[in-house]
Design brief:
mainly alpha
Length: about 425
Amino acid sequence: MLKPVNKSIMSNSFWLMVVHLLGYIVPVVEMAILGRALGPDGYGFIVVSLSAVLLMSVFVEYGFNLIGAREVARLKPDDPALAVWVGDIFTAKMMLSLLVAFSVAAAFLMGLIERISVEYLPSLVLYFLGLAFSPFWFFHGMNMMLKPVFLNIILRFVSLYALWCLVEAPDDILLALYIMALSGFINTIVTTAWMLCKIKSIFDVKIRIRSAVKIIASGFSAFLYKGSQDFSAAGSVVVLGGVSGDLQAGYYAPVDKLVRSATGLSGPILTALYPHLSVQSKLQAIHKGLLISVAFFLMGVVGSLIFMFAGAWLVELIVGSDFSESSYLISAFALLIPFRMMNQSLGMTILLPVGKELVGARLLVAAAIGVLAIGGYVASHTGAYGMVLTQLILEFFLCISLLLSVYFIRKAAAKTECNT
């Protein structure tokens, strides 16, 4: 018989794996449909636009997937505090959304955003709402992910079918944006209704500004840690599109998506392991986390070799011969896979469980800023290849920095245990 904790880990790991696989497989299929229909330039425009929206949603999501799920897991469905917590997170997201909306409006008025026509804004707003207000954190904390996962699967495949049937030429960019936006928006509306039905004391869901401000303040470390990864991923596409144009972003995006699909496979396993490691002693968590991180590094090496030998063929198979420059990029980008997988593991299995997420967050933020600043400058002269090279170098130095941080944390933990 499996212990309850192992059953919980396996269940969460399985459903998180389904969600993550869907989150990486569907964009690859979307890439094949849109890349062949729109070409590198049109596909680049869509990728840059949606990446900009993703950047905005990162500020609104604010790491609530971590802190929200953790708090929900401690509460019972009939506990009035559950409704209060849901109301506080919704209020916090509304406040952050208003800040984002004012910032975007100010940028438009000052003429800083000229690439996107007004006709595209409604579809991008729908896409933003679907991302930023998803209540997946609630179902994760309640261990009730089955229905939301299946709904997500159905809507994403309906979206893919619609793209395949309706998007045929570069003139269909706006139609493609609406199809992709509606999938996430409908998913968020339905799952939010489910969430409210699960709350017994629904009338306790209230808007409390002061409590929302406290949640935002307390979740800053989680936001830095979680948000910096998404910020770097989406920001690199936006910056590349800004300094080198949609065409270079179109060449870069397929390679980036394929590599993230490979490295993202570790995400659900690490997320499921996190609650178990967080109740271990610091030395135990560090020891287990290092073993897990080395294992993921070795898996990353295997993945890297596969992409180096078969990546060019895979790119041409998916998006066609028009993306020939992407085939050259993937050989260099493949070297990043083992370092990124190890960095993800060091954060989720050591830094977060021992309460040192702020250390990891600072390093990730520094790396993200480096990718955007240095990568943007290099890409302005060398195009997509410069962004790839910058990410590879910074990912390596991030790995070294995280390992050094773990060494000093372990040294301090061992000294503390000896004194006690």
